[in-house]
Design goal:
Strand order of the largest sheet: 8-11-14-17-22-25-28-31-34
Structural class: alpha/beta
CATH class of the largest domain: Mainly Beta
Distance between the termini: 82 Å
Strand content: 25-35%
Number of strands: 35
Largest sheet: 9 strands, parallel
Shape: flat
Radius of gyration: 25 Å
Oligomer: single chain
CATH superfamily of the largest domain: Hexapeptide repeat proteins
Length: 323
């Protein structure tokens, strides 16, 4: 439980209402109770504000008057960011779970280096030569492979695998000869990696995840990929080997990026898009064939296959007309 006054004292903002009101939890506008704090960040949901039973709502200056008609509010320039910081404040109030810093069931090689302030969860494996930085948390069943480095204040969620072998094989008379993956994975500071995400070690150099990167669940990062600082990827993204992704990019869910490509800083890829060429200019890119009923989709797909032939016919007609 937190007083409204204590929240504003800790995080700033302008409180319009009762500083002594106790807040027992956080909730969305439509389900919040008079004992809970909510927020409005997107103006298109403003109609929910008047009907909300929340004890207090975090709003932008443009929504101040509407919020005051309803009841208590905290006014701030960035309500969503303010709400994020409230969640952090709330988590700190709950306190850190007790127990040993390294769970008894974890397997940590004697040659691994674990900062004393790091926490290693149940059934984790930290292999020889791996390094785990200060304030980092490995949740249950995380594996950090040999020689891999995880920076400070990182959170790695259950089942993630850091430093499995990259997918490297040389053809040999109809069979495949394994290429040993001799690099590692280097992860910067303040990185968060979702459940069951896999980041492969490099074949020769390292796979690199820079500071502040956020990866959702079930993402595959292949060997020798480099992801720039503060880039975020949604679930089920696949990045093929040796791709380089810039800083401050966003990659939508289930998008794919082919190997050896480069994405500039501030490139944003829509969900389910397939990136087949390098993108060297910042912007929002989409490569999706629109969904349709199957019969129409098949007709359109058949027409799409003819585009090259149609283009050549049009060019021939234009040349004929010019002559």
């Amino acid at each position: 439980m937190l007083r409204l006054g204590a929240i504003v004292e800790a995080l700033g903002g302008e409180l319009c209402g009762d500083a002594e009101r106790n807040i027992e939890g956080l909730a969305p506008l439509e389900s919040a109770t008079p004992a809970q704090l909510s927020f409005l960040s997107n103006p298109k949901y403003a109609q929910q504000l008047a009907a909300s039973r929340a004890g207090c709502v975090i709003v932008a200056p443009a929504q101040r008057n509407a919020a005051l008609v309803r009841g208590d509010c905290i006014v701030t320039d960035q309500p969503y960011l303010y709400f994020a910081r409230v969640t952090q404040l709330w988590k700190r109030q709950l306190g850190v779970a007790g127990g040993p810093a390294i769970h008894p069931s974890a397997v940590v090689d004697p040659d691994a280096v674990i900062d004393p302030s790091a926490r290693i969860g149940a059934l984790c494996v930290v292999e020889r030569g791996a390094r785990i930085g200060a304030g980092t948390t490995l949740k249950a069943r995380v594996t950090v492979g040999e020689g891999c480095v995880v920076g400070e204040r990182c959170i790695i969620h259950p089942g993630a695998v850091i430093g499995a072998d990259g997918f490297g094989f040389a053809p040999n008379e109809g069979a495949w000869e394994k290429i040993e993956q001799l690099g590692a994975v280097r992860i910067g500071n303040d990185v968060e990696i979702g459940a069951n995400t896999c980041i492969d070690r490099g074949a020769l150099g390292d796979t690199v995840i820079e500071d502040g990167v956020k990866l959702d669940n079930l993402i595959q990062i292949a060997h020798n990929v480099r992801i720039g600082r503060h880039t975020a990827m949604a679930g089920c993204v696949g990045v093929a080997g040796s791709a380089t992704i810039g800083a401050h990019c966003t990659i939508g869910g289930s998008a794919g990026i082919l190997g050896h490509l480069t994405l500039a800083d501030n490139v944003h890829i829509s969900s389910f898009s397939l990136v087949t060429r390098s993108i060297l200019k910042p912007g929002h890119y989409t490569g999706i064939f629109p969904i349709d009923d199957n019969a129409s989709w098949e007709k359109n797909a058949a027409a799409l296959k003819q585009l090259h032939r149609l283009r050549e016919r049009i060019k021939a007609l234009e040349t004929k007309n010019e002559s």
